[in-house]
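Posted in: Protein Modeling Q&A

I'm a second-year student putting together a small comparison for a lab meeting, and my supervisor asked me to include a predicted structure for Kelch repeat-containing protein. I've never done this before, so apologies if this is the wrong subforum. The sequence is pasted below exactly as I got it from our records. If anyone can share the structure token output, I'd also love a short note on what stands out.
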Amino acid sequence: MVRSSGSAKHGSAKIVLTCVGLLGFALVADFLWASSSRFASSSYSSIASNWASPRHTSPNPVIFPNKDQPTKSRIEEDAVKGKQAATGRLLSATFADLPAPELKWEKMAAAPVPRLDGAAIQIKNLLYVFAGYGTIDYVHSHVDVYNFTDNTWGARFDMPKEMAHSHLGMATDGRYIYVVTGQYGPQCRGPTARTFVLDTETKQWRDLPPLPVPRYAPATQLWRGRLHVMGGSKENRHTPGLEHWSLAVKDGNALEKEWRTEISIPRGGPHRACIVVEDRLYVIGGQEGDFMAKPGSPIFKCSRRNEVVYSDVYMLDDEMKWKELPPMPKPDSHIEFAWVVVNNSIVIIGGTTEKHPVTKKMVLNGEVFRFNLDTLKWSVIGKLPYRVKTTLVGFWNGWLHFTSGQRDKGPDDPAPKKVVADMWRTKLKFIF
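Accepted answer (user: helix_wrangler)
Welcome! Here is the predicted structure, written out as tokens:
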């Protein structure tokens, strides 16, 4: 009996312990499941955030543990539908327009022809507008002149037949306009090393010594009596060039027979602004890579290649050493003639930024940027009537003007579409 009673009690105890054990296991399992869910949720948020960044590419495919979590395609769709509230333009938040004050733009007389990748130089109240694509299959070979005093397009004259039609390097001393290298012909044809100078008073052209090798859209400027040419794209139109040459010039004449090699630019590539202010030379923005001619194409048909647009700013100092300055508010390219200097500030209009991470299309910029040379700080001082690249810019009597270029498809689509001849102006006022 005693042994029988002890057995019963022992059996009951085993049942209790078993129940407690099962309950404990269930609690531990529930805790582990909850922790795992929280980790999965946290990891997904991190992956999705990183994937949306244009500078991050996940090395492995994202695998979601259950069907209720968003798929990559849904993330892409959400990215495309993202809205930038400050400008009211529909675009992925990663590549949205930057917040900017409204400017009152006035439409002026359009240029005689539309231009893409043209060039422009302002001398006093005249804006000389050169060459450029009319369409991808047609290039201009003349100069149009806009008079800021009476707001009319007037004189028109031809360029030399051997002169490049787009992707030009260009600078002026106030009378003579120096024209360096560039692309000869439509589509994605090859570059030329030919260099010319225009006397704007007589409308006469002269040859200068050719550049050592051809380049597309090199940064070009007159500085300390020398014509400086640097960067651009190499002969294949895609590979960035780092070389830097200079040539002594005076009154439209070359004082040397050959170009001199100078310190290489820290980062190569075409489509950047090159500016001299207070005896300092600045190179702003640009890109690495460009369209190339399709192999075997008899018309040198343009073929898309990878491009990297950047916001870098460099300055060449008294010791002929490059110094890196604060970058632009966003990457910006196609701005070689899209700038003016006003009140010790550099003002840059439009351009292109990095390609959209989802659609892979080119994204145009619609901002007006200001770089204050007293504070070395960038700001966004306005937005354009539309996003546009390769604008040709001038400033006269308080008015900021821009003409030509390739504009966006509309307020909700920043991809490039129509090549335009429009001329716009706005009264420019800085708020310090």
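A couple of things worth pointing out for your meeting: Residues 1-20, 22-88 have pLDDT under 50 and may be disordered. The chain is about 15% helix and 40% strand.
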